[in-house]
Amino acid sequence: MRSKTTELKLDIERIGTVSAILTLPDDARACYVLAHGAGADMRHAFMEKVAAGLSERGIATFRFNFPYMEEKKGRPDQPAVAHAAIRVAVAEAARLCPGVTLVAGGKSFGGRMTSQAQSKSPLPGVKGLAFLGFPLHADKKPSSERAEHLAGITVPMLFLQGTRDGLADLSYLKPVVEKLGAKAMLHQVEGGDHSFAVLKKSGRTNDEALTEVLDALVAWIDQIA
Fold first, then answer.
1. DSSP string over 87-121
2. For the whole prediction, is pTM greater than 0.85?
3. 189: pLDDT confidence band, cut at 50, 70 and 90?
């Protein structure tokens, strides 16, 4: 499927300007506002692969940098700043992709900041949230406090998690998802780490694991559309 890539700038009031990329396939039926993780920007190889894979499946992506990453600062933005960037990105994605199903979320930190923004005030037009490795807790320090805000979200949510994810102990995440009820779904990627990378002894490649992630994400998008 052919696609068009457009690079643009987003102006965040009283904060600054950040870069963004829209990857828009012909006849896109949905757009995923895809926020990056804490340690890598929107052009990281993982983000590029997700955007390309979704484009092949008829799903547009709208990637953007958080201000701290745009300015090459080491520490992630305060939540209020991240939330503001997400709101601007969602609004621009909606403007550029009218008439398609709009979902939001992203990788790790980006997904969590999106869920926080949604819990504080629903993101206009967003039909669901998809998390590519929800960071439930600090590395190997299991807890579920970071999930408390999810209870206030009413749109469907998809948690795509590797079973070896050190930032989301499944014995803690599963009860969180179950408590959220029918609006939440958990898809476990067997042997995947926080970025869905698998061990060689698993018998499959990282690309095969990512294919599973993308197929599950697209099936969920089509389900909530």
1. HHHHHHHHHHSTTSEEEEEEETHHHHHHHHHHHHS
2. yes
3. very high
